User: Fold these one by one.
Assistant:
Number 1:
Amino acid sequence: MSLPRVLALGFLAMAACAEPQTPAKVAESVPRPAPLPAPPPDPLGPKPEAHLPAPYAPPVPDVFVTKGGLTVWLVERHALPYVAMTVSIPTGSSSDPKGKAGLAFETADMLDEGAGGRGSIELSRAVDALGASLVTAATVDASTASLSVLKKNLVPAFTLLSDVVARPRFDPAEWKRAHELELNDLVERAADPEEVERLVTRAVLFGLDHPYAHPVDGTTTSAKSIVLEDVRKFYLSAWRPDRAILVVVGDATKAEVTALVDQNLGAWKSPTAAPPAPVAPEAFRGPWPRLVLVDRPEAPQSVISLARPGLAASDPREPVLARANLALGGLFTSRLNQDLREQRGYTYGAGSRVAHTRGVGSFVSYASVFTEKTADAVQALVADVAEYAKTGPTNEETDKTRLQTRGDLVEKFEAYDRAAEHLAIEAALGLPADHERTAALAADEATKEALSKLASDCMDPSRAVVIVVGPAAKIEGPLRALGYGEIEIRDTDGSVVKGKRAL
């Protein structure tokens, strides 16, 4: 045997006779790491538990009347050097004379087209130079002029607002330009199926002669009949200090506001004639056609709606109805959107709305749907509303709508300009200064049973009319199969063009 082999066998024998090293001894031979030091205490303290937010209580304005007779609602906020204010009057499109639909809108539109000693361009440049915003507008029940500006520029900015509301120029050249733009906008509106749905829904629900029937900005026919002299007369009747309310939100005191009003609006006097009473029409009570069709031959989709009377803004149930509407169609996660969009794929969006008006308003559910699914979408929409009217919200929907209502309320009042504009509309509707606080409490405290009662009373589709805007040649047959009986044909201004068609 060779020497290397003998040595190798000897080494193996020695290894076999050696005492085996146990795992415990191996572990003992490895040094243990030092224990980690304890973490220092959190300087912020223990993590707080999450709690539901408390109900938000909207501010109640301080109400006073200046020596010139102008009523002021003041909400002082001194956290920011910023002031927002809105002048409102209780006159909107519901006060338009017969055949002059859109007159309140065009009057408000002309207020900032030159005022005081400045023409339209000079006025616009003066506003821009102060870093301010000045906007005039009209709604169904009110007309407004709004200003927002840094506190340091409040005095000169208020002078501009005062000129707009008390000393508009109504220049013929500016009228010609503004009126032509309005006519162009109305022509374009007729090409928007969603705008057509809104217009026709109002006309059908209230009846063509009702003050709420026509759109705020009028129609192409009515706008052509309005002349500058109509605007002047309407302004003198509607825009007067004994009918106006100035809402101020921001870094301003009662003494400062009073001084501004006395200096800039002291010469704004009311006519001797009694002011016109605000229009508060009753709801049109039908009878309504079961289904109305507006033919748009080239439309790539259909717009459908289900409409019925709602409540007046002064009705104590109105805030609860607005909350009940959230679960049905006021949110992206609402029932209508989840069913018609997510489950069925008929639309990119469906919802519902509740009008906030001096007189009895409306409740409308709606959707823009694929043309080939029009009849199916009508059937599904009506079924969803009927089910909600029958059962009301679930417990989960009740909780969700309460939190959403709180969040919406905070958002409404956190921005100075939005708060001023909102309170000014409330004032024009004849609501008291503490209405928002009272309404917020009523909506927040509403139970599942109260929400269900409002859903049953104000959303039941058995008292509603269906309106469809779309290509009649493609959708009339499937709509006929739904069993609504007669279909009434209307044009894009809401007028009956063929009467009721027997099917």
Number 2:
Amino acid sequence: MAQPAVRSRHTVLLTAVVAAGVAAGVLPFEAPAAAAYPQRAIRLIIPYPPGGAGDIIGRILAARLGEAMGQQVVADNRPGGGQVIATQLTARANPDGYTLLLASATHTINPGLLKKLPYDSIRDFSAITVVADSPLLFLAHPSLGVASIQELVAAAHARPGRINYASSGPGTGGHLSVELLKRMTNIDLVHIPYKGAGPALVDLVSGQVQVMCTSPLPSLPHVRAGRLKGLAMTGRARSSAAPEIPTVAESGVPGYESTLWYALLAPAATPQPVMRRLHAETVKAIRLPGVVEQISALGAQPIGNTPQEVTKFLQSEIARWTRLIEQANIRAD
């Protein structure tokens, strides 16, 4: 007859423990769940082709995160479709921490650029951290005769609609960065879209086009060789990759900022213990001296902010790029 009373005392004790945990904002048995993850390889989906800065940063992260997590993190390149293919794949994956996405600025451009996306860029994802960001570099062919943003703006005012600029395609970071400059300085430049940054940069070097805004990684060698003029970096501060080049903001356009960034996202509803582990290990990994050095060599800098900060950042980026896309009447085609 005493056994039910024992069970009752156990039930009361368990109920009290659970209630205390809930009151403290901790779900019951979270620690064992977090400790058990991961038990197999993790897939990091990279929505860019191999070889670019985003791919390199993703592979650096995969290697170090794998070491920290005790399981392999496999880099899975899924380029194409304006990054929609890779992003949709992640959104539809099981929210168990075994599928992650290295999203970029395109993640916040697409909602304004594409009328129908097969996912919601905020609701269908759980933000982990911004891994790194990098400024873009405004470039000009020497024949244009400008060596700064101030001179470019003056030349564009003197010759409205007669100076052209290349981009790697409509709605890309480089395209929108120039459109942002146009809006903020009231200048008229003619857009020449290409199918990728590579061919656009080739034509800029040959003088077929006059201006471009693109990643410093492939373009700085041309600046150092005198084939192109480096006008300004688009970040908030000067880049360690070329500290001699000023920012657009300090070149007479206060408030200007546009960067390429890479954020680690998981599918929505990924368990919080898993999210906390991923955030802690990712931030530790990108702050290792060797990783900082590798990322800096790409003209980028590690970030490592909180999930809440990432979510607010994504929301603000979607709002500002959507507004610019509507104002400039930019279309994906």
Number 3:
Amino acid sequence: MKEKDAPASLYKNEQAKQRAHESYDRAMKLWDTDYGEDWVGTAYGLTHIVTAGPPDAKPLFLMPGLFADATMWYANAGALADEYRVYAVDLPVFGGKSVPGETSIGNIQDYAGWFSELAEHYSIETTALAGLSYGSWLSLALARELPEHIAAVIMLDPSETFTKMRAAMAWKGFRYFVFFPNRQKHRAFFNWMGGGFSDPAADIWLEHMLDVIECGRVGMMDVPQHRVYRREELKMVTMPVLILAGGKPIIYRSPEKLKKAASYALPHAEIEIIPDTGHSVNVEQPHAVNKRILGFLKENYH
């Protein structure tokens, strides 16, 4: 997205924004911990952040997947906020309650500038980052740009980043999002990505995500695109890294090949495959994921 393309709103109109925000609030009822809400002014507009946990605890920023927002951490926020000060971010490029400014985020350098402003607002010198899918790539990309400020990185089922996704992703994306798109097709796509996983909480959250897609004015190609990094491009990423990937062959035909590629690119990273899990590992296996994240942070984030 170039600067001149910065949208006045992330949504098509005021009615669309209200609809998406109402389902956002319904999804936030799934959070199992007390939380607050901040709007932080940056050069890229107002960023909405959901905060939880002790104010004096070490910070942990959570980055959402594409078209997702802070609501997606409902199965993890309580466990993480018991130990850390959680900052669940609505990215200023899609969905959520953030309000874009006149300057858009068009590349990773813009993301780095934006994130630096958030950290400065909260007087944070170093922090841990965690993300899912696109947010996973973004966490690593920020660690490349700001290694002195990122103490640890947690990547949940990263998309691209270490190896190309399977061709079925591109085909299904075209079929469900470009060729006569509708809500039913979008739901089918996400059900496929989740490997058929469903429960009452996930169903509530999915309806919100579908509202964001239907009501939003930003498409998936309008945001900075993730890419595969070469090993030499990650030499500055020396902080501890945890990678948890879904075991079902969904966005990657072989999760083991993803593990091998990630191990080559980041030899010091801890990499695990969560069996019988699709792309949304954080809600499909929350107890296992939360336990592994907390153990990793206790060991590596001092």
